[in-house]
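Before a colleague's protein record goes any further, I have to sign it off. What it holds is a sequence and that sequence's fold in token form. Would you go through it and say whether the fold makes sense for this chain? The record follows directly below this note.
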Amino acid sequence: MTTWDNIYKNYQKGGDAWATLKEELLPRFINFIENNKFKSKNALDIGCGTGKYLTYLKELGFTVEGIDSSETAIDMTREGLRDNSKLNCVNMFDYEISIDKHDLIFSLSTIHHGLKKDVIALINKIYDKLIVGGHVFITLPDLESSKKWNTFKNNKEIEPGTYTPMSGPEKGLAHSFFSKEEIEKIFSNFNNLKLELDEIGRWNIIAIK
């Protein structure tokens, strides 16, 4: 059972809505969808959680696909979608993304859960598999945020910029934080890169292949 499967199971039993579980749809994401055109309207959500973003996109006519490390989250997404959308419980760093299928790949508060080399490899994979002209919307936490988040006041540094909480629901789970300069380098293959730091210290990253 993964860290986040424990979090979702606890939530189902009436426990805390940890992290993104308590968030509504990000206004920046809604604005991004409303102000862009998508060739095939085929979306992949990396870290789909309860599936609220996939439900939103489905209602707009997208074909949707989601992956998550939590079987409980996948079950919750399946219940919300009530269709045969492709959903997989899988490690995101191992998942084989279909090539030339998606014109939208997004990941909110998810892909930083790993070592930097794995995060960077996944972003490169996203670029390789996205159709030409396809869009990404990805969030990564700002490096300075690691000094401010309550859950990281008691942490262990694994490598420069990567920490693991020593307490709380995500105890032992690697979290990588990034500077603006790092993000610009990682996304250098993309076009029309836009970065915006939100109120809780996440970089909202929008780009096109």
About this structure: Helices lie at 3-12, 27-34, 52-59, 71-81, 116-129, 180-186. The mean pLDDT is 91. The CA atoms of residues 156 and 208 lie 35 Å apart.
